[in-house]
Input
Amino acid sequence: MHIALRTIAVCAALLAELGGHAAASSWPASETGLPNCRRSGEDRVPIAIWWGDIWKTSDRDTPAPPPPMPGGTVIYLSLRINPDLLDDPDTPCSTGEEERAFTLKFPDDEKRPEAGGVRVHLRGETGFHLGSCTVSGFYVSAPASNIREGWSDIWLRDTEGRIAPYPHYCVADAKHRPQPAKPKVLPACGGASDDRTPVSVWRPQLTARGELTSAPPRGDGMIVSIAIDTKRDANGVCAGWDHGHFRFLLPKGASATAPPGLLVTLLGNEEVLADRCRLFGYYMNEPVFDQSGGLSRTYFSSVNTDRLVATGQFCLAPSGIPTSEGRSSDQVRRTRR
Amino acid sequence: MKRCFLRLALILATGCPPCAGLAAANPALPPCSKFPSGRIHIYPWTATLANGVMSAPPPSNDHSYHYFDFVAAEQDVETYPSVEKFAVVIPLRLAHGIYDYRLYLFGRAEHANGRYYFTGVYGSWADTSSATAHRRDTLEIVLSGKYCFDSSG
Output
């Protein structure tokens, strides 16, 4: 009898535990107000969730920081953070939902924090609940490099309530993560009657010295599809890599569009392959006015492809529809001839 | 002729000529279509400021969003420590005298070549004595799909 009662009690406790987990795993998703993503055939923009308690950044139960993201990636945060982990713990998290900025450090090796890790810089409204600093809501990322070098930085700021009404988003938690499908690409422009904005393609070749041979299309806010392959040196470092950014020079006189020499900086959308490094994807151009050293400058940062495609306002310019190999269709046609 | 000499003197004195087309930002935001689309229109505003002389009047208060292509000599810009806040004084000539109209700019600006470059989409509003403009994130403007650039003015 005693054993039976104990078994029932254990089973009841287990059921309660399982039920609790089920509820716990669904509540952050429901908190977003977004519908769940479908496991397959999902056309909407999946929004990831970073949630849980961060009491010790090296703890096994601590939710890992999100991976580096292209610019404009939306993520939902629901975090309770130990105030001692904030870089200015003397400034209390406000109960009045005031905006503040702070950095959370996730060292790769707790015993050697100088070796680096991931730093998450958050700017948004915070709250204070049961001794925790709370952060909750939709956040959007600034572009970040995929290449880890010492400390990697992820920048997130709250969206100030500008995300929720978007109908083409869905929430991708552990249960509703869409299956990896073919990467989304912009549709091809459909001719003169197409009123969408054409996206130019830039596939520059690099010289043996790692310099550019053509100038990129430029314009503040211009979206450009870019693919650049660079060599890796004996130490495995990608040519052009410089403290979190890629920088390539278009020398003076190399192109009529950049007479004094043009320094092109790119951030994000990088991939380190066995024999080379690749920058590939959609970028947004922004002007740089600094002309020190007699150089013009321009800046490209990675753009979240899902959101770009979801606007329905962009199409690929007909002269250069990229293939999965990262070459433009023009280049492919030329190669086949 | 006299005006041209005045401008030449200004160029020589400041190295930041308001009439030399220094403002060189080239907005490439999705253009507005000819037909109503429900999108929010962004209108261009181009100006330079040197020695207290503005090349164009402040942005119209009729529109909420402007693409600023505004270059100001650094000595004409007031900065605030540890915040992305700037202010410039625009002398406005009215019937009963000259008024100092103050334009506050919030958000990122590039400081280079002895100048401040205020470029990008700003949401602004104004009253009789001052105007305030907040810079909006360009990428968010593009990815929201809710804005278009109206170069018709």
Summary: The helical segments of chain A are 2-32, 305-310, 329-336. The radius of gyration of chain A is 24 Å. Chain A touches chain B through 31 residues (CB under 8 Å). The first strand of chain A starts at residue 45 and ends at 54.
